[in-house]
Structure formats: C-alpha cells, structure tokens
Design goal:
Layout: E1 4-9, H1 15-25, E2 29-32, H2 36-42, H3 61-74, E3 77-82, H4 83-90, H5 94-98, E4 100-106, H6 109-119, H7 125-128, H8 130-144, E5 149-152, H9 153-158, H10 160-171, H11 198-201, H12 225-242
Helix pairs in contact: 6-12, 8-12
Length: about 250
C-alpha cells in the first residue's frame, strides 16, 4: 500500500490552503475532509451551514475508511480532516491508524475562532476542535511512542517555502516548489463546501499573516463573552501542541 498522510486540523486553521499545496503537487490523490460526512451526515451530530452533500458521497465510517484504503492501493493519498470527527472510532481501529502518517496543523484560536464565527455563529465547543486535536496527539504519542509532526499556520504564512520544506522533510516527501502556487479552479471534492473556502479560491498562494481587522463591526473575543470562553478553554491545548511545532527548513 502507498503512503497515506493525514493532516489533522481544526476549523479555520488554514488547512484548506495546505490541501491546495498538496493537490498542486500532482503526486497525491487528495481528499477534502472525508470524515466530515460521517460527523454531519452519517452520525448527524449537527446541521452544518454552507454544506451540501454531493451524490454518492460515503457517509459511514466503514465506507469512508474503505475509500481511503482503496485509493492508497493505487497511489499516495493525502487527506485533511478534523480530529473531533473521528477520534472516538480511531482509538478502536488501530489497523486503520497504523496505515496513516499523522500530522497536525494548529492556529492561534484568537484568529480561528473569529473567522469561524463569521461562517457559523452557532458552532459548539467541540467544533472549535483544538481540545480533541490535543487528545488525538496525546493518544498517538502514547500508542506509538513517537511525536507526530505539528506545524503552525502563522509560520506557514510567514515562511511558506521554509515550512513546506520542513513538512516534506518530516513526512518523507520530496519538496516541489511548484506546489506553492495554484489556479482559481474549484478542486474536485469541494463542491459541497465552496461557501467555506472563498478566501483560498480567491488567491493563488498562501498570503502573509496579518493582525489587521478590516471590518470594524466584526465580532471579537472582547465583544462576545461566548467567544472569549471558547478561547480560554482551548488556548491551553493550543499552547501544548505549539511546543512541538516544526521550524522552517532551508
């Protein structure tokens, strides 16, 4: 079987831009949050806004698992997903976990939360995602005795070349410079979630990090007590993961 690389992320962590890089490589078959359809459709944990299910999309754990493993029989596979979609099942399925190179992407929740709120103001504490990411990371450490790869979104934004080199080196991939630029077409697999990714489709590469708020009326951590509570809850898990992040490679 060919390699399967998973990027475990959380909402609004810049994971879709990372997926664009992997798609642009041309040597991986890429899947966009396949277990999203388990969480929001198969298990029906919650109604998700800006979300349509393309006909024929697998929505059960077994079917999604089989789709990824079957694809890996034909060539290398990359998928990005959220830990909270699947951690409960993965703990019970070591055979599947064993087949994956697990990597993690984190972003300061002060930024991801505000971005998330704009698209889904009714998100749950679980959907913020960072706590379950950390639980996933810990479980992998305890199960395999190794530390999974962690990258920070702001680092990728501020030194895209160096961080993607580091990510490739840590996962055994060749660094392909052409992957850092992409077109404006909608990738296959994004049909049901285009409303979530207009920022990525509107640019041809990863943009520099910025603290500027261009919308003075936007909700902030200081103006919304629930956002602040979510931030305070998840910040320690983000900081714990941040201690393991890669540094740029030249």
């Amino acid at each position: 079987m060919h390699p399967i690389i998973a990027l475990w992320s959380h909402p609004r962590s810049m994971s879709t831009a990372m997926e664009r890089i992997m798609r642009e490589r041309g040597d991986f078959r890429c899947f966009h949050e396949p277990f999203m359809y388990l969480y929001y459709v198969g298990d029906a944990k919650k109604a998700m806004p800006h979300f349509d299910v393309p006909e024929g999309t697998p929505t059960s754990y077994d079917d999604i698992r089989s789709m990824l493993l079957d694809a890996a029989q034909e060539g290398p596979v990359f998928f990005k997903d959220m830990s909270y979609y699947i951690l409960d099942r993965m703990r019970e399925d070591l055979e599947f976990s064993d087949s994956i190179t697990h990597t993690f992407l984190i972003r300061d929740p002060a930024k991801s939360l505000v971005s998330y709120y704009k698209l889904d103001p009714n998100f749950s504490l679980e959907e913020v995602g960072i706590e379950t990411q950390y639980q996933h990371f810990q479980w992998l450490q305890e199960t395999y005795g190794t530390t999974p790869v962690v990258i920070e979104a702001a680092d990728v934004q501020n030194d895209t070349d160096g961080m993607i080199r580091a990510y490739c080196n840590a996962t055994g991939m060749e660094f392909l410079p052409h992957s850092l630029q992409w077109g404006d077409e909608v990738p296959k697999g994004w049909e049901g979630v285009v409303g979530w990714h207009g920022d990525v489709m509107g640019s041809g590469s990863i943009k520099k990090d910025s603290d500027k708020n261009t919308d003075p009326s936007a909700v902030t951590l200081d103006s919304d007590p629930r956002l602040r509570a979510c931030y305070d809850h998840h910040r320690p898990f983000y900081e714990a993961l941040q201690r393991h992040k890669l540094t740029p490679l030249r």
